[in-house]
Amino acid sequence: MLSRPRLQSFAAAAAMVVMLALPAAHAQERIKLKAIGQPLATGLIQKNKEQPFFENFAARTGLPIDVDYKPIDTLGIKDTEQLRVMKAGLFDIVSLRVSQNSRDEPTILGLDLVGAAPDYATGRKVAKAYFDTADARLQSQFGVKLLGVWPFGPQILFCKKPVAKLADIKGMKVRVYDQNLAKFIEMVGGTPVPVSFADTHQSLSLGVVDCAITGPSSANSAGWPEVTTHQMAIGFQMALNGYGMTMKSWNALAPDQQAKLKKSFDALSDDVWKYSEELFQDALNCNAGKDPCTTGKKFNLVNVPVTSADIDLVRSAVTKVSLPVWAEVCDKSNAACSKTWQATVAPVLGLK
Questions:
Q1: CA distance 232 to 165
Q2: C-beta separation of 187 from 311 below 8 A
Q3: Which terminus of the chain faces fewer neighbouring Cβ atoms within 10 Å, N or C?
Q4: The domain 156-237+283-349 is classified under which CATH number: 3.40.190.170, 3.10.310.30, 3.40.50.10750, 3.40.50.2300?
Q5: Domain spans in the chain, listed from the N-terminal domain onward
Q6: Quick check: 227 and 204 in contact, CB under 8 A?
């Protein structure tokens, strides 16, 4: 039997062992997650907003989480494969490219039908109205929880041949990134050509396409004005993207941690909405060689005036092309797809 002094000594030693072990235990409690980011080539939103958020994840969220963040164009994964690799459990968080992944899950394209969100204010309303629908579908089909939605901004037209109005693309080959946009280009008389963002500069240079569609800031970052001559600032889509997390990783967090995480992604998304709008006008100026130009490189593209007739043409796309075409595809995999869109988004747009 141990004497009192020896018992006290033993207890003290045991307490010391516990204290020494605490830092190691705390260190082991840190959560490590893997994240897919936007392509480096897309430019300033990825560089100045998204990457800093993930590289300082613990500080930005107040959670003991470290994130291994990699832009998708450094991973050897196509941007059309994001939902598949998330479902397979290869990554925990994704900066989801909505249009590019709509073939795997057509429901999510309801966030960004051609003609539905020609400006930022409308884009925000659509995103808010459709968020829960997209979230529920991603959870049920891919085990991914939607944490936020944000825009690259209005996707506009760049051409290496003179254009004065939208109808001038008749007979031209136009780079597109989803089927919805492809059908609209066909309606106007152009030939849609699916080309990845990373390959578009070369495709324009080699004449594989005559025109291409993206946001002005992304175009500036990727050097599209080097191989084009005209820009037409008419918004076909808002290029909405999202942040998603596997339900496995989400459910591993305590409720208070989930609340903190969602609040942090809400703040990031809101920040990107504001930043995107600032970039849009500045990039248009830069591309045309005008001031103020603070975020990009100056080029000398011709600014093509946007006519009211062309604005009406794009807006009419919702009822004439994008909604019917999307509904046909989406309803095959999700019976309530277009009906849900009509109940949530259509009222926001004043459609009956």
A1: 8
A2: no
A3: N
A4: 3.40.190.170
A5: 30-111+119-151+239-280, 156-237+283-349
A6: yes
What is the distance between the alpha carbons of residues 109 and 279, in angstroms, rounded to a whole number? 24
Q: Distance between CA atoms of 258 and 198, rounded to whole angstroms?
A: 35
232: three-class secondary structure by DSSP = strand
pLDDT band of 118, cuts 50, 70, 90 = confident
* Whole-model pTM over 0.90: no
| Cα–chain center distance at 242 | 5
Q: pLDDT tens digit string along 294-341?
A: 999 999 999 999 999 999 999 999 999 999 999 999 999 999 999 999
pLDDT at residue 3, as a whole number: 53
Q: Do 156-237+283-349 and 30-111+119-151+239-280 have the same topology in CATH? A: yes
Q: Does domain 30-111+119-151+239-280 fall into CATH 3.40.50.300?
A: no
Where are the strands (E) in 58-118, listed by range? Answer: 65-71, 93-97
Residue with tokens 């080029």: 299
